[in-house]
Specification:
Layout (H helix, E strand, L loop, with lengths): L1 E8 L3 H12 L4 E4 L7 H5 L6 E4 L7 E2 L7 H6 L2 H10 L4 E3 L4 E4 L3 H14 L3 E3 L4 E6 L5 E5 L2 E10 L14 H8 L4 E7 L3 E2 L2 H9 L4 E7 L4 E8 L3 E3 L1 H7 L8 E4 L7 H11 L5 H5 L5 H8 L11 H12 L1 E3 L3 E2 L7 E6 L17 E3 L7 E2 L4 H16 L2
Parallel strand pairs: 1-2, 1-10, 2-7, 10-20
Antiparallel strand pairs: 3-6, 4-21, 5-6, 8-9, 9-10, 11-19, 12-15, 12-18, 13-14, 13-16, 14-15, 16-17
The protein binds dihydroflavine-adenine dinucleotide.
């Protein structure tokens, strides 16, 4: 049986980073992947340009039952560390918006950097290899029964991500390992995911499909200002994806379609005074896309001066506190990430090692740490992978 210092299961962002870090420290590493190739999600990320990190990473950009857990790893492997790695390979990048960094040479180049580093560090990458069982021998070494025979290691790193986008090979494998070793889970749920609605609302969304508008989307706990996008199935776009991670089933969310105006009601009243002969539709033209404007206020044919203050007040409410009641989300098939996962109480925040199972580590999306949209999830994958890669003995 072939034995290693470290076996990493899952050659995604976190697994690659962990493997190359441990390899650089002289550890013998097997990086095992059940898919045909490593880094499948890296390749499709950011529309093929990979939003690989964010310039402004703070613990507040992450959701976890323990909001302090991610701090240690994030502080010890920062966006600048990853940028340094890219720069050493001649890779360049640009900020698109909100600190989001994208690779100029595309996602393929990011994956190549990671694979080249793995090769330099003598990491053995094996694809199309799956794990049938995990056992521990008398010395507490891990013995893996795989599709290509048994392999063993002192340290076992679970980097298999979450079940988002199963058609890309995503699985709940990490949760099965957690169950085997009696580790608690925070309920996994689809996150960064579009909303779906009942038949009536869906009909409206469908009629607006393709329309995008700058909005503030909020619930009682938080809010995000970015575009929302109407689709044939419901609502998507960055602001919707962000709030979906904070959404609980049965809850409503509110949408402010006039996010640049501090007091929508006061503004409409003043427009009535200043431009009584104008139609609502032309007043709102500068703020709403034409199709949405027509659908929301097109029925008001009379000038704003002839519209009662009560109607103005109702309209202002509809425009700035549009209540939406999603019936659900598009689920794991469309979720960019999975929130929840291995309960961080079970892990050391410094090393990602299980407190009760020495030598067993969980990193990346498998763990109950979920980032906002905008490069935060890859940064967590790099940072947690690096923490474990530095810690294995
Ligand atoms: P990841 O899912 O990357 O890797 C897990 C690996 O384990 C996969 O290769 C999988 O095949 C393998 N695996 C699973 N089960 C296995 C098993 N039983 N045996 C062996 N191998 C197994 N984030 C971001 O910060 N910026 C962005 O631009 C984007 N864009 C984006 C677009 C889309 C469409 C999606 C779906 C997601 C993103 N993300 C993102 C999120 C980001 O891709 C995600 O958070 C990281 O890839 C998580 O890295 P991990 O290594 O933890 O899991």
């Amino acid at each position: 049986m072939q034995s290693y210092d470290v076996i990493v299961i899952g050659a995604g962002a976190a697994g690659l980073m962990c493997a190359l870090t441990a390899g650089q420290r002289g550890k013998t590493v097997l990086l095992l992947e059940h898919g045909k190739k490593a880094g499948a999600k890296i390749l499709i990320s950011g529309g093929g340009r990979c939003n690989f990190t964010n310039e402004d990473v703070k613990p507040e950009n992450y959701i976890s039952r323990n909001p302090h857990f991610a701090k240690s790893a994030l502080a010890r492997y920062t966006p600048w560390d990853f940028m340094g790695l890219l720069a050493s390979h001649g890779v360049t990048w640009h900020e698109k918006k909100l600190g989001q960094l994208f690779c100029d040479q595309g996602a393929k180049r990011i994956l190549k950097v990671l694979l080249d580093e793995c090769q330099k560090a003598h990491v053995q990458l094996r694809t199309e290899m799956s794990v049938k069982s995990i056992k521990r021998d008398a010395d507490h070494h891990f013995i893996l029964e795989t599709s290509s025979g048994n392999v063993g290691a002192k340290n076992l790193i679970i980097a298999t991500g979450g079940p988002s986008i199963p058609k890309m090979g995503a699985t709940g494998f990490a949760y099965e390992v957690a169950e085997q070793f009696e580790l608690a889970l925070v309920k996994p749920e689809p996150a960064l995911v579009p909303f779906v609605f009942d038949a009536e609302d869906k009909e409206f969304m469908k009629s607006m499909a393709g329309v995008a508008v700058d909005a503030n989307v909020f619930n009682e706990r938080t809010g995000f200002r970015e575009n929302i996008l109407f689709t044939h199935r419901g609502l998507s776009g960055p602001a919707i994806l962000q709030i979906s991670s904070y959404w609980q089933s049965g809850e409503a969310v509110s949408v402010n379609l006039l996010p640049t105006i501090a007091d929508g009601h006061g503004w409409l009243v003043s427009q009535k005074k200043q431009h009584p002969k104008q139609k609502l539709k032309s007043i709102l033209e500068a703020y709403l896309p034409a199709r949405l404007n027509e659908a929301l206020v097109g029925e008001f044919k009379r000038p704003i001066g002839e519209i009662s203050n009560m109607t103005i007040s109702t309209l202002a409410d509809q425009l700035t506190r549009w209540h939406l009641s999603p019936t659900g989300t598009e689920g794991y098939a469309k979720a960019e990430v999975t929130k929840g996962g291995i309960d961080t109480d079970a892990l050391s925040s410094r090393t990602m090692e299980c407190k009760t199972v020495p030598g067993l580590y969980f990193i990346g999306e498998a763990v109950d740490v979920t980032g906002w949209l905008g490069g935060y999830n890859f940064q967590w994958a790099w940072a947690s992978g690096h923490a474990a890669g530095q810690a294995v003995i």
